[in-house]
Amino acid sequence: MPIAAQNLRMSGYGQFCPVARASEIFAERWTPLILREIRAGNHHFSEILKGLHRASPSVLGQRLRSLERLGVVESRPNPSGRGSTYHLTEAGVQLAAIIEPLGAWGQRWLEIGPEHMDPDVLMWKLFKHLDASRLPVRRRVARFELDGVRRRYWLVLSRDDPDLCYSDPGFGDDLVVHATVEALIRVYLGQLPLAEAVRCGQVRLDGSGELARGMTEWFPRSGFAPHARPMSYDVSKKSFVMQPA
Q1: Strands 163-165 and 84-88, how do they pair?
Q2: How far apart are CA 13 and CA 8, in angstroms?
Q3: pLDDT at 244 (0 to 100)
Q4: Are strands 153-157 and 231-234 parallel, antiparallel or unpaired?
Q5: What global pTM score does this model have?
Q6: Alpha-carbon dihedral sign for residues 201, 155, 228, 110
């Protein structure tokens, strides 16, 4: 069912062009990321909020209500307790399909800068994209010490119950990963092989040799990694450079 024009209350372009009208919905701040999170299977308010990182609960609530009014998102009773869960409608599924080519284009053509290198976002992405089938059979813990970041992070690598901790979970550290935020982001994005990041000193591994050797296997990659343009680290310039196409 088409979304009724009277449902659009936000200020827009004042044009009948479908591109303009669709942009009035999709291009509103936080909307693409909300659709991204729901499309990825995060249906609870708290899950969506964690995926946004810098949005406030009140802003997320406003956006979800707006998307409900527009017929893009629908709320359902939470089957496991209080509150609601949020799901894409048929219109929402089609709108969210834009995310894949948009992300592929961004991965291919846009560079990242210091303002994009949020360690909390990085570690959350690593945790959410862990592939349980690639994790060690026995529980192992990797502590991440990121250069210039006071907070420490622990990834509990367990096939049954992987976790991201912001304080010591008390299981002991099997591996300590010393790294720059940028290096790990570029490895996650598929721009830089982990072995190259280790070779050039941007990632340093201490502890279990077995876990360190297996890091290439369990360290996750972005779904957009196949679209990445390869990079290398120039030691003389102390910066990452794009490799020739």
Answers
A1: unpaired
A2: 12
A3: 72
A4: unpaired
A5: 0.89
A6: negative
Residue 114, CA distances (Å) to 67, 92, 206 in order? 32, 33, 27
Q: What is the largest CA-CA distance in the chain?
A: 62
- Give the model confidence (pLDDT) of 8-19 as tens digits: 555 678 898 889
| Torsional sign, CA 65, 71, 73, 79 | positive
Alpha-carbon distances, residue 91 vs 88, 206, 231 (angstroms): 7, 49, 38
**C-beta separation of 37 from 51 below 8 A:** yes
CA distances from 102 to 53, 122, 236 (A): 20, 20, 34
Residue 124 near residue 245 (C-beta atoms within 8 A): no
Which residues fall within 8 angstroms of residue 172, CB to CB, at 6 or more apart?
141
User: DSSP letters of 144-185?
Assistant: EEETT----EEEEE-SS--EEESS--SS--SEEEEE-HHHHH
Q: Determine the Cα–Cα distance for residues 29 and 18; give it in Å rounded to an integer.
A: 19
For residues 14 and 28, what is the distance between their CA atoms, to the nearest angstrom? 15
3-state secondary structure 69-121: HCCCEEEEECCCCCCEEEEECHHHHHHHCCHHHHHHHHHHHCCCCHHHCCHHH
pLDDT in tens, 149-163: 999 999 999 999 999
